[in-house]
Amino acid sequence: MPMLLVIGLDGASYDLCERWIGEGHLPNLERIKREGCWGPLQSTTPSVSPVAWSTFMTGKDPGEHGVFGFFVPERSAPHLPPTRFRPVNAPDCHSQRFWERMNEAGLSTGIVGVPVTYPVQPVRGHMVAGLMAPGLRSPGAAYPRELAAEIKAKVGPYQIVPPGTYYPGAEESFLQQAHAALELRGRLASYLLAHHRCDVHVFVWYETDLVQHKMWQFMDRKHPRHNPVTGKRWAGAILDIYQHADALLGNLCEQLGPGDTLVVLSDHGAGPLHGTLHLNTWLREQGYLVLRQGYQQQLKRAANRYGFVQHCSALARLFGVSRWMRPSQGARRALASGFLSASDIDWAATRAYSLGFEGAIYVVGERREQTIAELVGCLQELRDPTAGEPMVQGVQRGADLYHGDYANYAPDVVLHLRDHLYSASQKAFAPKLVGMGVDSGTHQPEGVFGALGCARAVRSGHEVVDLSTVARFLLEVVGISSDPTCPKGPASS
Ligand SMILES: [Zn+2]
Fold first, then answer.
1. Most C-beta atoms within 10 A of its C-beta, which of 6, 112, 351, 467?
2. Could you give the C-alpha distances from 337 to 43, 331, 332, 433, in angstroms and in order?
3. What is the mean pLDDT of residues 370-385?
4. Per residue in 56-69, is it b (16+ CB within 10 Å) or e — as a string?
5. 10 alpha carbon – ligand 1 mean position (Å)
6. Residues with CB in 5 Å of ion ligand 1
7. Which of 6-20, 80-94, 145-159, 338-352 has the lowest mean pLDDT?
8. CATH topology for 4-60+95-270+443-477?
9. What's the pLDDT band for 371 if we cut at 50, 70, 90?
10. What separation in Å is there between the alpha carbon of 267 and the centre of ligand 1?
């Protein structure tokens, strides 16, 4: 049985790949482009990793699998006020994953680093959770359980989510950590291919996205925060991480046989970030979101106003306790978001709230339809208060955008921020409407897809144009019909 190897490069951008392939910097991707199939891959709406990778693994749209962002408002029924906000994870993704169908057909699968797979489920093969998982040591991070200890002993200090502590001035150590983390991902892939060989291997590498978020300003001379001096020093940071990933890919190719198939893809692309829209701050100013007036909320408000959160993390770094504190990805995001929790909100008086990153607004209470219509109308007019330019390219109703069994749980209003130059946050205590954190890059909707191997794979790979078609393609490559009503099992071809 020939092997199928899938490498996910989180956030690898089609335009950057094209440019750097053209300049001869990415010889292994260049080979896929030359000998296989290659092209842009449209992401999901929103084009954020949990949503996009859920679509990758299920072949379904968000309305069908039920993952709409990093956070889930936990509700007993759609449109009710949530009891809490929590990070999204595997149980929130409600469709069958392509590897489950492969396992049913008797194929073994090794799935490593795919976001939203925590806690991992038993599979025929092995599995290591990806983004949104707490850490390799936690139960549910690896299947079989002993694999976590084996990885530590045989591969090294592999981390599910890289530390990613970036702040201005820390470029060198940040990049060192990112490269070290990526190196370990390559080493783990190599180790598993050699010692735990499966019919299908999937690895997602995260550092491409991470470095783009933090280092974009240095290579982009038009970025509002570009500084020619630091720009010169770090202009090559993103290319370096792409080259590193390309080299690791080349190493893995040496472990492939002549009949094997290699697929490379990303969940979205990348581009500059010009500002972060604090949508909850706007909703609060407009009277849609009402916060409680308790001690906790006063404290959070003051903490945000005086930069307490940032000072705290700076102090933690200074005294070297940030490693020891090791906040989870979710906790770090909650910190950065100004601690907004469901208990901060006066639900009796609130009509709408937002859950960050891209502009997703949930509407609650009576007169929902009226609130949605109002929001669609006035959000269109939002302008960047500093630059004076429009921030919003389009506003859609969730009901028009999402279809399927879980569409009821989708955000009610979805913003399309202009040219994807802005992101949204869920800060409710931010003093300003538009802010700029440490990130200078964000997501664009165009990722990349490439395949190299058997003629059938390459031929049908040309039809893969958006993320929801990838699962069907992968099933076809291993000879399983993507139609679930067809008899299961490798087809005779
Ligand atoms: Zn991503």
1. 467
2. 25, 10, 8, 13
3. 93
4. bbbbbbbbbbbbbb
5. 5
6. 10-11, 49, 209, 267
7. 338-352
8. Alkaline Phosphatase, subunit A (3.40.720)
9. very high
10. 5
